[in-house]
């Protein structure tokens, strides 16, 4: 099934002699296929096809777009065990995790299919004319969200299915009416191609225009060419701060700057309050350790920073946390580069002033991540921004405050985060309302007595946060509102009814929810 080609629309293409290889991170062995790096002409052709497809795809009936999304999910499931085996082999992730991720990927596609089929997502807003209004007549004004054009999507390393080729970025961009060009992640090239073929098969079966989807392989130069291409209208990215910020800066240097919706990681601070600690500090330590270790710490919502006030209970918590982390078996990380970065960044943090190690720093072989914790006084944390940086892997830093005032200062010192967690009783909350509010100002999602590593895919979820967690904290990459990253508003003034988009026609033939003269109607 795997050809090792790029897909320029539905056409397999292999112009360049430069090749990439996929590796099993558990043993370092290469998979047999070679993958062609996309050339400049292939990228140009993919974007040209996407631009031509946009003129058709943006106007295709919502029901047909929904059928396309449903068909993608069906074709992914039809890949069966072969997809699961390949994704496990390229990522080092266990079979159960990949099966769950496949389910999430397909459910996301079907969620957006239902959203598009129902239609109210366009936020149709109508103000009818008042021709005899004095002193100036009021025109008829009708506003809605529309697609923007070809979108470039970058696959993520830590989610080979749910945040990659047919993941939430691709699903939401296609749902909005935009053709998509995916740059597959180098860590799972075979998985990317298998899913790309499923998308193209679904496009053919549902009669989508040629160029509605393309996939290109390559490293940084290929990504740069995509972002700089004048016909690309937006970018979706999940990954490191360094990578996301580089794409963001590049997009803003264009003659026509475009939005880059980059989710760039987070230390996800968890504040542990005194009364909560008194309930059962040892069990709480074990719970936090399980969250830190989940997926070898390779979640963007991994709780990498813990904040508490010095007390005997905090000491019990810290000891239980450290023991649970030490007892967790090392597991294979996503790739060699991530494993090397984990150990290098962890070592650099442990060398900072005031940091005390809690555990064994021995590095394991075979790209396996060994969990570890450390502590630092809040006074040192507040002075040293190196201690605020993300360590991508099974590591967490416990900041020990002298009192509630110092805990508040820690909350105020943080940069933007995806999540913030409160392990607290209701009395802890009321006694520390300023600290709670300071944390809320820094995060996209704030949790009460839960762990942040689970992200529910639903309309109410917000997965984003103030910079540098993401490039625009207003938008989410998870849930139905992710569609609005790839739309823009347009207002029609005094248009003949027969010329209006179906969502804005007077009789509302789709029966969608609309705000008409400031009243929500169907």
UniProtKB/TrEMBL annotation:
Keyword annotations: Oxidoreductase
Record GO terms (molecular function): oxidoreductase activity, acting on the aldehyde or oxo group of donors, NAD or NADP as acceptor
Any Pfam family: Aldedh
Residue span, Aldehyde dehydrogenase domain: 19-486
Keyword Cell division among record annotations: no
Keyword Oxidoreductase recorded: yes
Record-linked CDD domains: ALDH_KGSADH (cd07129)
Protein name: Aldehyde dehydrogenase domain-containing protein
Organism, scientific name: Roseivirga ehrenbergii (strain DSM 102268 / JCM 13514 / KCTC 12282 / NCIMB 14502 / KMM 6017)
């Amino acid at each position: 099934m795997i050809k090792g080609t790029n897909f320029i629309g539905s056409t397999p293409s292999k112009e360049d002699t430069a090749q990439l290889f996929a590796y099993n991170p558990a043993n370092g062995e290469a998979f047999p296929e070679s993958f062609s790096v996309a050339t400049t002409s292939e990228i140009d052709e993919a974007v040209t096809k996407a631009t031509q497809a946009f003129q058709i795809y943006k106007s295709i009936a919502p029901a047909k777009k929904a059928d396309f999304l449903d068909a993608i999910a069906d074709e992914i499931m039809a890949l069966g065990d072969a997809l699961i085996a390949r994704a496990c082999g390229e990522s080092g992730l266990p079979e159960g995790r990949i099966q769950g991720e496949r389910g999430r990927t397909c459910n996301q596609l079907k969620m957006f299919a239902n959203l598009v089929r129902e239609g109210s997502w366009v936020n149709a807003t109508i103000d009818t004319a008042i021709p005899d209004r004095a002193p100036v007549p009021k025109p008829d004004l009708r506003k809605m969200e529309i697609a923007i054009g070809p979108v470039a999507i970058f696959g993520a390393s830590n989610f080979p299915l749910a945040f990659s080729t047919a993941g939430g970025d691709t699903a939401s961009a296609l749902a909005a009416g935009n053709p998509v060009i995916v740059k597959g992640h180098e860590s799972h090239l075979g998985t990317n191609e298998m899913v790309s073929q499923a998308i193209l098969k679904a496009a053919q079966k549902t009669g989508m225009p040629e160029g509605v989807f393309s996939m290109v392989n390559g490293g940084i130069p290929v990504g740069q060419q995509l972002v700089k291409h004048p016909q690309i209208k937006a970018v979706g990215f999940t990954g490191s701060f360094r990578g996301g910020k580089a794409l963001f800066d590049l997009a803003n240097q264009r003659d026509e700057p475009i939005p880059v919706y980059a989710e760039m990681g987070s230390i996800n601070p968890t504040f542990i309050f005194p009364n909560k600690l008194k309930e059962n500090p040892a069990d709480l330590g074990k719970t936090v350790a399980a969250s830190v270790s989940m997926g070898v710490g390779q979640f963007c919502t991994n709780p990498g920073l813990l904040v508490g006030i010095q007390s005997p209970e905090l000491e019990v918590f810290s000891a239980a946390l450290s023991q649970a982390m030490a007892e967790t078996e090392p597991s294979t990380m996503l790739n060699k580069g991530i494993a090397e970065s984990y150990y290098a960044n962890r070592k650099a943090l442990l060398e900072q002033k005031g940091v005390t190690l809690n555990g064994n720093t021995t590095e394991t072989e075979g790209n396996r991540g060994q969990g570890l914790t450390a502590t630092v006084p809040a006074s040192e944390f507040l002075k040293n921004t190196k201690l605020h940086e993300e360590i991508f892997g099974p590591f967490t830093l416990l900041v020990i405050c002298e009192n509630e005032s110092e805990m508040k200062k820690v909350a105020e010192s943080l940069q933007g985060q995806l999540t913030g967690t409160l392990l607290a009783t209701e009395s802890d909350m009321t006694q520390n309302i300023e600290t709670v509010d300071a944390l809320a100002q820094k995060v996209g999602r704030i949790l009460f007595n839960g762990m942040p590593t689970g992200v529910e895919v639903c309309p109410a979820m917000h997965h984003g946060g103030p910079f540098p967690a993401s490039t625009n904290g207003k938008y989410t990459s998870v849930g139905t509102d992710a569609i609005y990253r790839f739309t823009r508003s347009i207002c029609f003034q005094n248009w003949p009814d027969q010329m209006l988009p179906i969502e804005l026609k007077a009789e509302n033939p789709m029966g969608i929810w609309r705000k008409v003269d400031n009243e929500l109607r169907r």
